[in-house]
Amino acid sequence: MKRTIFLMTISAVLLAAQEKPMTVKRLTPNLYTDDVAACVRFWVERMHFEKTMEVPDGETLAFAALQKGNIELMYGSYASLDKDPGVANSYRRGTGFLFLEVTDLDAVAAAMKGAPMVAPVHKTFYGSTEFTVQDPAGHLITFAQFGKP
pLDDT (tens digit, 9 = 90+) per residue, 59-114? Predict the structure, then answer.
């Protein structure tokens, strides 16, 4: 009887431990490029992000982290991926897609003037007004404002 109670207690403790909610503190996009510095300039000069960290690789950057408010974005170099034997054969180059909700689409459009336009300003069926540009690495960035008249 004692053994049964003990096993039931252990089972309850293990079950409670498994049901403990897992908290995700942050999700940060990590995009890759052949030119990290150009992507950093894109965000710093156009959207006033701050470069919070960089990892040099000779005369170039292997990695940089950017932040504005609670939004964080990272860029790494394909060359740095190729130097990591565990990763080198596990990834494929491709286009990343970012969706950013903004409060003033007109101001963002002005900041993006001259960036390669993929989709001009348009209204969507889900209630936003948005446009999409390419960053220097070719990743697509959609800026959207909901409720814009």
Answer: 999 999 999 999 999 999 999 999 999 899 899 999 999 999 999 999 999 999 99
Rounded CA separation 30/36 (Å): 11
Distance CA 123, CA 125 (A): 7
| Gap between the Cα atoms of 129 and 149, Å rounded | 9
- Answer whether 129's CB lies under 8 Å from 122's CB: yes
- Quickly tell me which residue has 């040099």 as its tokens: 56
First to last CA, the chain: 71
137/119 Cα distance (integer angstroms): 17
Contact of 49 with 73, CB cutoff 8 Å:
yes
